[in-house]
Specification:
Elements: E1 3-4, E2 9-10, H1 11-15, H2 28-33, H3 40-53, H4 59-66, H5 74-77, H6 84-97, H7 104-112, H8 116-131, E3 163-166, H9 171-175, H10 177-189, E4 193-196, H11 206-210, H12 214-227, E5 234-236, H13 239-246, H14 248-252, H15 255-263, E6 264-266, H16 267-272, E7 286-290, H17 294-299, H18 304-310, E8 314-317, H19 332-335, H20 337-358, E9 362-364, H21 368-375, E10 380-382, H22 384-392
Parallel strand pairs: 3-4, 3-5, 5-6, 7-8, 7-9, 9-10
Antiparallel strand pairs: 1-2
Amino acid sequence: MATSGVLGLNESELSTCVGCGLCLPHCPTFRVTGEEGLSPRGRIDAMRAVEWRGAPIDETFLRFVDTCVQCRGCEPACPSGVPYGHLIESTKAALADRGTITPRWQRLAYRALPMHRLLLAGSTMLAFAQRLRMVPKRAGLSRLPLRRGPRPAPSPAPSGAESVWLYLGCVMDAWLRGTHRSTAAVIEATGATFRCSPDSAGCCGALHVHAGLEQEAAELARRTIAAMPGDDAIVVNSAGCGAAMKEYGHLLATDEARAFSARVVDVDEWLAERVDRLPEPTGELAPVIVQDPCHLRHVQKAHLPVRTVLGRYARVVELDDDGLCCGAGGAYSVLQPELGTAIRERKVDVIDRARRASGAAVVASGNPGCAMHLAAAGLEVRHPIDIVAEAIGTGRDQVPS
């Protein structure tokens, strides 16, 4: 991989952009600001200026980098196949190595994610603080659970039944454990069984990659790979986690990592191939609006299976914005609250338009960040698998919070 300059970017990847501008309508920050520098084309030009022409890494350049949601909505729209995600991740990694971005308090927060007991305790404290109105609304958090209930436990399966790993992760297990129970119930409804990932695979490193903490992300990737050996599929119900795990081959550049990534599937990908094993729907299908998480649609390219699975039990209502980002972006809505809110407002307008046209009350979204960001705006948001589990009557009881 030929690299040069202070950012160490791949020269062939950096050269790919021809500046056509077809990415602009698909960039959420460009859509809300109209600034060229806050578009993929503008950011790539700024990278080239630093890498090839010796431009300084100044406040303007850092603003261009920090304000990117990393939704990667520009990639499917690009006729030249620019790997923008790799470029922005490599840029942030170089800046983080220099200590230019991702201050110490952020690094400490990310360091806590793999410490699962600490994360659970901290999440409970944060939920208490919410009840006491001590968490500012600008944090963009929807209501966190005080009680989570048990982790899913597999029931006995017939000899020879298909088996999968159910990846629990960090934030999903702390905040949305009920969705894990729904996922487990739906997996078992197909006749398969599962094993839960151990705590040693408690964080996939997705947020670390977004923050430029490449070495930390690589260590978490190695831990996750070691924690789930064998050939069984690894079913993931968080779009951001699934996208990160599918890119371990790029992150670690080893055959072991590439083989592991090939085993990772979004839960709807896995179910779509087994949808005929699920119970038949009963009664009238209710309308449900589908909001595609960016890392499911643009990175995993696995948004269509959601419609296959959810469409068996609900009337799917599409949005008319071609998958534009909602502004969650992992920790983006917390770190960039003004832009995150402005992007979300556009998404809420699109959802309201779909609600008026269809009568749908529920929005389905398969990523915790998206779900919580939209719920904080007053929308009723549910994971698609929670909807399916309820429809087939096998959802595990939710614990009141």
